[in-house]
Amino acid sequence: MESHDALELAKKIIELDLLRDRIWENLAEMAGDNAYELIRRVQNS
Questions:
Q1: What's the whole-model pTM score?
Q2: How far apart are the first and last CA of the chain?
Q3: What is the pLDDT along the chain (45 residues), one digit of tens a residue?
């Protein structure tokens, strides 16, 4: 059986994934079709 710490980390990953989805939706609303390009520019800077 998984340790308590491993289960807590798994829960945190799920929470981060859900937060990422919400943030992405906000960015997509603000930047529209430019959202992917904006992400690439920020990653490469």
A1: 0.76
A2: 43
A3: 579 999 999 999 999 999 999 999 999 999 999 999 999 999 999
Say if residues 27 and 35 touch (Cβ distance below 8 Å): yes
Q: Which residues contact 31 (CB under 8 A, 6 or more apart)?
A: 38
CA–CA distance, 7 with 25 (Å, rounded to integer): 27
Beta carbons within 8 Å of 38's beta carbon, 6+ residues apart: 27, 31
Close Cβ partners of 16 (under 8 Å, ≥ 6 residues apart): none
